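User: Second chain of the day. Same drill as before.
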Amino acid sequence: VAELTSGPLVSGQLAPAREATVRAQVGGPLTSLTVDRGRTVRAGDVIGRIAARDLDDAMASAQVAVKSADNALTVARAEAARTESLVKGGALAARDLEQARNMVSVAEAQVAAAKAREKSVWQQLDDLTIKAPLSGVVAERLANSGDIVSPGTPLVTIIDPTSMRLEAAVSSDQISKVQPGAKVRFRVRGLSTDVFTG
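Assistant: Same format as last time:
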């Protein structure tokens, strides 16, 4: 098998195989966006914050609801235990114990619902902190501190520079000169005079 030492000249562009556009998960004023174009970030780095005052109130309300539901469950369990003793002693009917146990089940469901609401608010509070999803370089900054963002608003684009690939088109009359697995030599304009191989 002879090595292909000549072939068609192509023009193309380098594009990352891995990139991510970081978007706002919640709405509110963007209080900070600490990265600019060209800055290197690591996955998990905090790169910005969104303010949402109504979530603080929602968290306080959710925490009160959990505490209230926990208290109601404690009372229901105590009442069920007391009713069970009275039923064993013959002072109450068996249906009273069944009702007390139903109240425990209702209270357990209320605790579960209150904790789910609290978890949801915690997630929304966590979404106020904007983190880099991958390690790389900030290619675009699409928002600024002070902007009012809504869920889905693009904030920055991060690319992984180690995943760059050359995307180039070959004219149809030159396609016969291209073979699968053939090496490609190319230069990157403005980067250096080095020749890269792929």
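Residues 184 and 198 are 5 Å apart (CA to CA).

User: Great, on to the next one.
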